[in-house]
Amino acid sequence: MKLLIIEDEHELSQGIATYLTAENYLCEQAFTFGEAMEKVCLYSYDCILLDLMLPGGDGLDVLTEIKRQNSPAGVIIISAKDSLDDKVRGLKIGADDYLPKPFHLPELSVRIYALIRRRQFSNCNMLTINNLTIDLLNKEVKAKEQTINLTKTEYELLLFLIGNRNRVVSKSALAEHLSGDMADMLDSQNFVYAHIKNLKAKLVEAGCPDYIKNVYGTGYKWIE
Amino acid sequence: MKSLLQKSLAKFTACTVIILLLATPLFYLLTKHFYAEDIREVIEAVQSGASLPKTDLEQDIIAGIALQFGLIMGALLVSLILMVRLISKQLWAPFDDTLRRIELFSLESEKLPQFTNSNIKEFNRLNIVLTRLIENNLRSYKTQKEFTENASHELQTPLAVFQTKLDLMLQQPDLTEQQAEIVQSLYEVSARLTRLNKNLLLLAKIDNRQYKEMELIDLVQMIEKVLSLLSGFTQEITIREEIQVASLLVQANRALLESLINNLVVNAVRHNIANGEISIIIKPNLLIISNTSSEGMLNKESVFERFHNPSEKIKGNGLGLAIAKAICNLHGWEIEYQYKSERHEFIVSFPN
Q1: ipTM of the complex
Q2: What 3-state class would DSSP assign to B64?
Q3: Best interface-test mutation with B: which of A7, A164, A178, A186 has the largest number of B CBs within 10 A?
Q4: In 10 A of CB A129, how many CB atoms?
Q5: Fold (topology level) of A126-222
Q6: Alpha helical stretches, state H, B92-176
Q7: What is the average pLDDT value for chain A, to the nearest integer?
Q8: CATH top-level class for B215-349?
Q9: pLDDT tens digits for B256-289?
Q10: Which of A119, A207, A211, B305 lies 20 to 30 Å (CA to CA) from residue B340?
């Protein structure tokens, strides 16, 4: 899987690249409008992360160019300007997703994962991992043919962990993913802990080994 | 263009001339009938050879002079009053106009008042100075507003770098428990910074009137949605809902209405006590959110101020209620704080 990261802040771009490379994506970086246009025109990618404020030009023009070429790449806008106008314009031109800065890397990762799945395996809605089969269309989880009844939150939690399998996902990232705005307003520690506990219990009950490892209470990791 | 003094002297002179002309018939009448009529009687009597009439000349002269004096003074007084009234009304009309426009001016509307040109030097100067003053104020108001917004935007990227590095740090295979604890506390700092920045940005954007899309939203539905999100956070707190209407439709910006409810509800959770209670009441055109708390009555005026945090233990960032107030102001709703039977109560009323 080939990714292009268009972002002018070197540190941020590097951080994203490091995280995603470890997930076996091939990452290329562009730091300016010119570089971005050049790469977009010359090569093809599976997914493009696009910052809107670039030195030398407007990120939305890059997006227009990508769409003009009928590129198969999915585009996720990552923007510091959390403005509704930009979001609406971006999605209208044909971006697939919009992630305002600052974001958690696991969140970015699951969005890329979901996007690539949607675009390239559009008729395959079954996900198999370890002993689990997940029907993404019907939101159903099975372990060895036995259906596990999960609440909406537990299901989201499971997908998020699986989307970041073998990586440590912080409690903050989990809380934000599960409850958005509420998470950073209230104490989310117990909230995440309670849901993880329930999910674990249900998986164990269905006969799965303990896939979710607690990392010193700071984060959780799905072990494949 | 003339100065105020010149202009008023000219008007005064013109008025005096007109009054003098108008007063002429009066003086003619006065002279004809009330001037020395006794002497005339004496002269007439002498000429016709009749006996002299009995008159007291001294008293007559005094009475005549007094009458004249009274009449002249009366006429003068009345004309003076009329003159002064007329002249000042006319002369000060442009000043009055300017005053009215300043009274209507508000910095938030960001509209420069258009003063009418007058032909009096001082008033024109006043208008020019006022225009310049207001222009400067508007400019610095705008710069200040934009500054907050730009600063918040600029902070997003370093915050993103910070958070990204923490996410990477957590992936280190040989992370020790102590290091993990440090990472965790940095996550909390990062979350606080992000929240503060988001709130400042939200306030700046409300001030800059960037939320223009309004739609008809059912408040009852929205409350249900917020409460379902909240359910994971309020294990020990009872939430009592009392919804007296089937639906409460309000014209609002969706993101802002959501933020208003979130802020009020989260506030009620945050300042609650263990095993406390939150009650949410919806009446026609009224939303009341109240909660139990260990804190006493808050100041009704300052509770909505930015960074006003009365409690020792800082739980929020001191912007939640300021945001709620700003959102209400923008939509033309009223928000009020009350303290009733040891409960903090926030009442939002939506006028029809």
Answers
A1: 0.89
A2: helix
A3: A186
A4: 13
A5: Arc Repressor Mutant, subunit A (1.10.10)
A6: 93-104, 121-169
A7: 88
A8: alpha beta
A9: 999 999 999 988 988 888 889 999 999 988 999 9
A10: B305
